[in-house]
Specification:
This protein has 268 residues and is α/β, with parallel strands linked by helices. Helix content is 45%, strand content 15%. Bound molecules: ribulose-5-phosphate (5RP).
């Protein structure tokens, strides 16, 4: 791995804890306006400071993130589909040259294993890895799961391993039962997506179980920005990821931070 690539990766995954809290706000790339993300700049205000990395699209980066902000960026560079069309039919949407011009720390692309467009999305990944190696840019492979796929260790293990074999530098997937085997069989770090909004304590449990099973962190969206208190939630997630707190400790932190802000919320 080149010095530049390692340096960029160290901006994403903390070299001290070997963990990361990535904040995913890229949902609009196929969903359009998403609940909680209607005005991304507003969504980011109370939570950006607690994110190790932001995962987003080029359009949201340019319009909604202060260029002087220190938070490293993982740029989504796959897309070309919407909720109205087969999602798996993705291409690469950003040139590596522009990712470098935007000074991002990494690029992210979805693969759709088992779908109609499996080959196309895997070749997209291989191409992006070639470019990433050429320019020192880490590649995050996102294992997108179609409605018809089981989110089990066998399927997710297959997706993560294929992503790593094709050269992804780290992988994003979903937590599942026997997640240890997914991690064991994947030679690069894994972060988990949060998935649909859950009650806060359940989302913290999911985070805890993933970390205990060997995930190096989260790339979480809806369970943070759709929380009744996004700033409290991301700090509770951080406590698990970076400080090894358990579910009860993290939930207590969430409640205490939330209650401190109660008067503010009442006035808003
Ligand atoms: C979609 C993505 C999204 O960033 C991710 O799934 C969103 O995170 P969450 O599920 O936690 O809302 O990569 O393919």
């Amino acid at each position: 791995m080149s010095w530049g690539l390692q340096n960029r990766l160290a901006r994403i995954i903390n070299p001290r804890t070997h963990r990361t809290v990535m904040l995913a706000i890229d949902h609009g790339y196929f969903l359009g306006p998403t609940s909680g993300l209607e005005v991304p700049r507003e969504t980011l205000k109370p939570i950006q400071a607690y994110a190790d990395t932001l995962m987003l699209t080029r359009g949201v980066l340019r319009t909604s993130v202060d260029p002087c902000s220190p938070t490293p960026i993982v740029l989504r560079v796959s897309g070309g589909t919407s909720i109205l069309t087969p999602l798996s039919n993705e291409g690469i949407t950003v040139a590596m040259e522009d990712a470098i011009r935007l000074n991002v720390a990494g690029v992210a692309l979805s693969i759709f294993v088992g779908s109609e467009h499996e080959r196309q999305t895997l070749l997209n990944l291989a191409h992006l890895v070639d470019e990433g190696e050429r320019y020192g840019m880490p590649v995050l492979a996102v294992t997108a799961v179609g409605k018809e796929m089981n989110r089990d260790a066998r399927y997710l293990g297959l997706c993560c391993r294929i992503a790593a074999e094709l050269g992804a530098h780290f992988v994003k997937t979903y937590y599942c039962e026997d997640f240890e085997s997914v991690v064991r069989n994947c030679p690069v770090p894994i972060v988990i997506a949060g998935g649909k909004k859950l009650p806060e304590k359940d989302a913290l449990r999911l985070t805890y179980q993933a970390i205990q099973s060997g995930a190096c962190g989260v790339d979480m969206g809806r369970n943070i920005f759709q929380s009744e208190d996004p700033a409290a939630m991301i700090q509770a997630v951080r406590a698990i990821v970076h400080e090894n707190k358990n579910v009860d400790q993290a939930y207590e932190l969430f409640q205490s931070l939330r209650s401190q802000r109660e008067p503010e919320r009442m006035l808003a």
